[in-house]
Design goal:
InterPro entries: Glyas_Bleomycin-R_OHBP_Dase, Glyas_Fos-R_dOase_dom, VOC_core. The protein is α+β, with helices and mostly antiparallel strands. The strands form three sheets. Strands 1-4-3-2 form a four-stranded mixed beta sheet, with helices on one face. A four-stranded mixed beta sheet has the order 7-10-9-8, with helices on one face. A two-stranded antiparallel sheet has the order 5-6. The longest helix is centred in the middle third of the chain and has 13 residues.
Length: 140
């Protein structure tokens, strides 16, 4: 049996306690190992590591996509549509300010997807999406 490789992403945050509250409590990512200056999260089965580095945080440049300014530096996860809808509702209930409100992008095209963008407390941009057809994630 071949296993799917997992990704590891390390990123800067301003405050470890804020990162724990956002990624752990709000997004529901279980915490792994940690230290005073970093904390691991299980981000949908992948290793996400928040490192205390306040001088490196903040929103980067954007690119126009589908009449929106998409942050050029961002990360996130591709969820099933029910998971995506539940997360969107949870974020709205928590009064998260969206960079791009939840909506359907590329409607009727091969890459049709539900998407939303928002910032963590350190200004890191996250995108969560769900494809109308998961077979089209890499379709041209």
């Amino acid at each position: 049996m071949t296993s799917t490789p997992l990704f590891h992403l390390a990123f800067p945050v301003n405050d470890i306690a804020q990162a724990r509250a956002f990624y752990g409590d709000l997004l529901g990512c279980p915490e792994g190992r940690s230290d005073e200056k970093w904390v691991d999260f299980n981000f949908y089965g992948h290793q996400l590591v928040a490192h205390l580095a306040p001088d490196e945080t903040g929103l980067s440049a954007t690119n126009p996509v589908d009449d929106h300014d998409v942050p050029s530096r961002h990360f996130g996860a591709i969820l099933s549509l029910p998971e995506w809808e539940a997360l969107a509702a949870k974020l709205k209930a928590a009064n998260i300010k969206f960079i791009i409100e939840p909506y359907i992008r590329f409607k009727g095209e091969v890459g049709e997807q539900a998407t939303m963008f928002f910032l963590d407390p350190s200004g890191n941009a996250l995108e969560f999406k769900s494809f109308a057809n998961m077979d089209y994630i890499f379709a041209k």
